[in-house]
């Protein structure tokens, strides 16, 4: 176990300058003094991939120190950001030419700004992307959380990513303590699925095997928004972990409440990873019925159970090439059942993780909760934005 390289996600802060409609994390920020330190990062295991996320990671002014330390542990690092802090992003990429950058753009200009709640957010994000392209930064991409309000921009954004020769990552709405949200739900499933269907066909049309596998991922998103069982098992906490700003190691970011395997501020990695508490969480993961379909849990599963997406890809490339048949969302039985009235919208809603009456746990420390009452954090974030 000790020598096996893992897949890790580091939530370096819960502070965020955006105001996204599908994520309330900005209302529940961490305190800067409590956020994960370099000393704790030094205790990390060897990793083949690390995602740095937030909140908005570039709010942390010591992000370069974190990346420097993580490169001693990890073969590859990708940072997820809203792209707002352009100068900081460019500076970091100059120092680390191999670091991956994924900027969330939630649609074309008007839609993006409405969803993100960031004034001029689209132009900021897009100009950061363009600057990265101009400096020939090799690993840059968009990320989009597809929902009712932006689904119709999906293919247009994919085309934009192609123009700029960039990666294009998709997600859909999820509920969890991490998003401080329990009410996210797709309302018009057929419309959203139709847009995913178009994207799957665009991806299958390309000459890039990576894009064919992305097509499978998006096919899985149709299955997810109809509340069905995951297409692949979820092995989070076995060779993949998340760590939050307080040093708490968790299986993933999809659980309703925060699930803790141990704390890396207080334990060594081996103590934590091999503890009874960690084993108890692994048992919970084995019975987890949330059926998330986010890249953090799906990408390791696609590598581990590669034959399943590979068979799907071969079948669809074959159908496309020899029979001129396109992918159809109706190959998902549940979509056919819904069209034929065998299952109702209300029944599908019940299969989702949306719970209008849930009390959301935000996973904050007691100290972070205390400071929220004084609104001190809001001032810190506003000051940070002003400085930009
Ligand atoms: S399905 Fe997997 S990623 Fe989602 S909450 Fe359960 S364990 Fe976490």
Write structural notes for this entry:
By secondary structure, the protein is an alpha/beta fold. 43% of the residues lie in helices and 12% in strands. It contains 16 helices and 9 strands. Strands 6-5-4-3-2-1-7-8-9 form a 9-stranded mixed beta sheet, with helices on both faces. α8 (209-225) crosses α12. The longest helix is centred in the middle third of the chain and has 17 residues, at 189-205. It binds iron/sulfur cluster (SF4). Residues 234, 236, 251-252, 254-255, 285, 288, 290-292, 297 line the site of iron/sulfur cluster (SF4).
Shape: globular
N-to-C series of helices and strands: EHEHEHEHHEHEHHEEEHHHHHHHH
Q: Largest beta sheet: what is the strand line-up?
A: 6-5-4-3-2-1-7-8-9
Each distinct ligand: iron/sulfur cluster
**Approximately how much helix is present in the residues?**
40-55%
> Terminal Cα separation, in Å?
44 Å
Uncertain stretches: none
Topology, number of strands: 9
Global mean pLDDT: 93
Query: Please, how many helices?
Result: 16
Structural class, from helix and strand content? alpha/beta
Strand residues, percent: 5-15%
**Radius of gyration, taken over Cα atoms and rounded to an integer in Å:** 20 Å
Q: Main sheet, how many strands, which sense, barrel? A: 9 strands, mixed
Quick structural gist:
It is built from 16 helices and nine strands.
Record keyword descriptors for this entry.
43% helix; alpha/beta; globular; 9-stranded mixed β-sheet; 388 residues; 16 helices; binds iron/sulfur cluster
């Amino acid at each position: 176990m000790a020598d096996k390289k893992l897949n890790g996600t580091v939530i370096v802060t819960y502070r965020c300058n955006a105001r996204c409609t599908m994520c309330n994390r900005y209302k529940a920020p961490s305190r800067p003094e409590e956020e994960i330190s370099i000393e704790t990062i030094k205790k990390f295991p060897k990793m083949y991939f690390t995602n740095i996320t937030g909140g908005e990671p570039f709010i942390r002014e010591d992000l370069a120190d974190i990346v420097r330390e993580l490169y001693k542990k990890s073969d590859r690092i990708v940072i997820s950001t809203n792209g707002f802090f352009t100068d900081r992003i460019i500076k970091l990429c100059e120092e680390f030419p191999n670091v991956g950058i994924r900027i969330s753009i939630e649609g074309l200009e008007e839609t993006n700004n409405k969803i993100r709640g960031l004034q001029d957010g689209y132009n900021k994000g897009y100009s950061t992307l363009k600057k990265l392209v101009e400096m020939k930064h090799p690993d840059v991409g968009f990320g989009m959380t597809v929902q009712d309000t932006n689904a119709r921009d999906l293919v247009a954004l994919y085309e934009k990513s192609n123009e700029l020769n960039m990666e294009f990552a998709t997600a859909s709405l999820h509920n969890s303590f991490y998003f401080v949200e329990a009410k996210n739900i797709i309302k018009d499933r057929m419309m959203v699925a139709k847009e995913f269907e178009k994207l799957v066909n665009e991806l299958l049309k390309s000459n890039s095997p990576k894009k064919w596998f992305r097509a499978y991922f998006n096919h899985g998103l149709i299955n997810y928004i109809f509340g069905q069982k995951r297409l692949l098992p979820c092995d989070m906490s076995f060779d993949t972990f998340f760590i939050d700003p307080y040093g708490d190691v968790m299986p993933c970011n999809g659980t309703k409440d925060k699930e803790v395997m141990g704390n890396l501020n207080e334990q060594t990695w081996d103590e934590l990873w091999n503890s009874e508490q960690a084993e108890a969480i692994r048992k919970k993961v084995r019975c987890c019925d949330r059926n998330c379909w986010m890249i953090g849990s799906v990408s390791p599963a696609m590598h581990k159970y590669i034959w399943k997406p590979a068979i799907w890809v071969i079948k669809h490339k074959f159908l496309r090439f020899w029979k001129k048949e396109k992918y159809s969302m109706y190959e998902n039985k549940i979509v056919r059942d819904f069209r034929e009235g065998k299952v109702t919208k209300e029944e599908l809603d019940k299969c989702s993780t949306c719970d209008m009456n849930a009390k959301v746990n935000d996973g904050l420390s007691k100290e972070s909760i205390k400071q929220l009452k004084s609104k001190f954090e809001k001032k810190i974030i506003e000051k940070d934005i002003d400085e930009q």
